[in-house]
Every structure is written in structure tokens, then in C-alpha cells.
């Protein structure tokens, strides 16, 4: 066959195949980066990427097929170069076909399976929402089961604290179809963070000896994996007490020389170390430490206990200021794996709020509407804090109710 009659040589078709394969590789890396950046990607954009990727694969396969057909008329050197170019292209395209088939499997089979499971899994939603004095939106009745919870939700915030800003879920859904745009849950979370999250201190107090912590709680355990079980996962994932000794009830506020409140008062609870106390409230106090020394007598950075935490029953709480927490309910928040919460410091007599700190969490996007993992959930970047500890809750207290001896740990 005459080479001059060959309008498009095998070499050119091989180059076309390699170019398309290069675009395949780039688009694949882009899709992976997009999914990583969006915290798991989004359904519509992922489907568009899959369709584009499949079209590239078909184009590469056709170009490789044409190049192979024309190799029979190419010269020996051109054959060698063309084959050298085609081999990696063919291998990558074969992998692309497998990846596309796997994507179809994940998108169709597992998607249908997820939808089926979602349809047959009844969400354990809150069925009765109650209007309360301290919240702009009604809250679940389950959040108001004891006196301290009802007081927490009755505390009114000053007008300067941001109010809820409506979110357009329909527009967010259509935006999620665009490349590099996050899924609806991420858009909603970013909206709540930018419009509502923050810390507001309206009044400071000096020389405060102690406070009343209104809502101590048990360790949540497996409840941290359920969508609707916890009122305020932000607080409840870290600010809990173990039930075996008094130290755990107040060590995040009494731990000199860092945390220098003299006492913390709490409602009495049905736990082992409070078994002999009959009064309705307890007072924790007396815990002290000192710096340890090494074998040469030099002071080191670790501390040892010099006096244990003590607990006594009291008939009435005597602290002037209270520290409490509450959940925040926003439209369709838990359905999108989002939970809001506040911690508040207030005057025990007048119920005036001295300070509030509001945060939102974004858990995993649930295929099962009843399950969200709150432990490692993302929080709004607008608030400072040390992730994975209760330091931000301790520091909030020290910033507002300043101790006689300055408290230093976690200081901004």
C-alpha cells in the first residue's frame, strides 16, 4: 500500500490517542481532588464527571483502534514509535474502562441500594417542637425534660447576637450540579457558620471564686453515632464526666495552677460518688497540685496531686453565675448531618446572659437517616479552640468570669 495515499498515518492516530488519554488522566485527578475537597463529593457533579470520563474513554479506544488498523501500512520505524506510544495508552484506557464500569456499579447498584435502605429506614425524627423564650426556632420536646434544660432554653440573648438567615435549599441543590461546587449539606453548613457562628461577650466579671455548672452529663458513648439522640453534640462529645470519682466532675474548671476556680456547684445526680449525698446540689472543691521534680531536684512541667477533689451536699446553689449549654435547632439541619449548639454564662438571679458561644457541626452525609458520626465532625472555623479537648469550654469561662489568680491554660 502506498504511504502517500495514507491521509492520516498511524503515528498521528497514536498521538491523538495519547492526547485523549492524557486528558483522561487529568480529568481523573481533577475529579479525585474535587471529591476530596468537597468532603466526599456530590452526586450530580460526580455523575457529570463520570459521563465526561466515559466519553474520553470511548474516544481514546476509537483512536487506538484506528491507529492499530493503519499500522499495517506504516513503515518499520513508524510502527515501532506508534506501538511504543499506543501500549501505555491502551493499558490506561483499559483501566479507564474498568474504572468507568466500577463507577457505574457504585453509582447505580449502591445508589439504588442506598435509596432502598433510606426508603425502608424510618427516620427517628423529633415529632413535637415547642416554642421557648430563648430561641428563635421551636426546639424538640425531648430537649426540655428537666428543670435545668428548661432554664437553659429560656435564657434570652441580646439583640446584637445574629438571628437565623434563611437558606435557599433549591438553589443550593442546582449549584451542587456544577463542577467544584460542594453538596447541599456543605453549602448549608458554610452558610450557618458565616451567618451565625461566633462568640459574644457582653460583660466580664473579675475575682470570681466559682460558678454553677447547670447541666453535667454522662459520657454519651454510642449516642454519638445517632442523628437525633443528642441535643448538642458539640458540647456532649467532649464536655462529659466519668462517673467514678469527684475529680472528673470539675477538673476542667478546678486544676491549679492552670484552672483556678475555688469551687464548682452542680445539681446532684444518681452516680456512684454522690451516693451518700441527699441534698439537691453538690459543691466540688479542694483539689490542688504542685510541680514535680526530676531526680536532680529540678522542677519539670508535669504536676502531681497534693489534695484530692472533695464533694459535699448543699441545700441550695450559692454561686452568683451559672454556666449552661443548649442545642440549637435550624430547618432541615439534622437531615443534612448538621447540629448546632450554644454555651452560655448567665446571672443566676436575673437570668441575664453575660456571654454566649455558638457553634455548628457537620457530620458525615448519612445514607441511613438515623446515623451520623458526631465525634470527628467538622466545626465552624470562625471559633478558636483546641479540637478534641474541653479546653475551649474552660477558656470561655475564664474569659468571662475571671479568676482571682489568673487562669493560663488555653489562653488565646
What can you see in these coordinates?
The protein is α+β, with helices and mostly antiparallel strands and 412 residues long. The chain has 2 domains: 118 residues; 231 residues, no CATH class. 36% of the residues lie in helices and 20% in strands. The chain is built from 9 helices and 17 strands. Strands 3, 5, 8, 9, 12, 13, 14, 15 and 16 form a 9-stranded mixed β-sheet that branches. Strands 1-2 form a two-stranded antiparallel ribbon. A two-stranded parallel sheet has the order 4-17. Strand 1 and strand 2 form a beta hairpin. Helix 2 packs antiparallel against helix 3. The radius of gyration is 31 Å and the shape is elongated. The termini are far apart.
